[in-house]
Every structure is written in structure tokens, then in C-alpha cells.
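Protein modeling request. Please complete all fields; requests missing the sequence field cannot be processed.
Requester role: graduate student
Desired output: 3D structure, C-alpha cell encoding
Chains: 1
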Amino acid sequence: MDELSARPQRIRRRRFLDYSFGAALAALAGTVLYPVINYLIPPKTKEITHQAVVAGKAGELPSNSGKIFAFEGRPAIVLRTPDGEVRAFTAVCTHLACNVQYRPDLQHIWCACHDGHYDLHGQVLSGPPPRPLVEYKVTLKGEDIIVSRT
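Delivered output (150 residues):
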């Protein structure tokens, strides 16, 4: 037996560089492809099947104010008019899907994105929105404000 065959096998430099380069390429591909695949295949979400939700407590909604809440996975707005009536609408503007809000100083619903104005019945007063807001049914049960589809 000669001395050369008695030595343990060592990885040659060229093979080590090949493995290192391959591992670096695999890491780069994973870093680039993982977000792309996550974007192309959206995550599974639960289908929201609530027919009615509690939007809040009646005592927490003073006259001439509004509150945003989630209804069927989308923003909705419940408001108490200056007359004390409680109404609920979708909070998504019909123009470009921005969120609307209640403006107590103007006493109507306002979209800040493109200055769209809706009255207290969800009808368009001015601005670019092409359609009125979708109105929901409001039921007061005790202290709870319950909102459902009409």
C-alpha cells in the first residue's frame, strides 16, 4: 500500500466550488420565486357567511357621528344622523373604491380621495362617484346595533 491511497478522501477544490455555486443559485432562485409564487397563488381565506353583525353599541354612537366596521369582509359605516336615526352603508366609494367617512361638520358622508359627497341616504350629492352607496338594514336590539343586508 502506498502512502497516497492510505489518505482519506478529500473534496477537491473544484468540486467544493461547484457545490457552493449550486447552493447559492438555489438560494437565489428560492428568494426570487417564493414571493412570485405567493403572489400568483393567493392564500385561502375563509368565506365570510355572516348575515348580520353587531356594528357597535348604541350608546357609543352619539348623534351626528359615524363609525367604520367590518361587514362581510369589507368596510362599512354606521352613522347616527343629527335627527338620531341610525343608518348603515358600505364604506367603499363607488368611484375608485376608497373608504368614505362621516363628516360631522358637513353632516354627510365624504370620500377624501376625489372629494365625493353622499347624503345621509347614500345618494350622490357631488363629485365623481357614479352610483349611490349600498345601504344595509339596521336593527337596534337592546344596546346592540345589528347590521344586515336588506
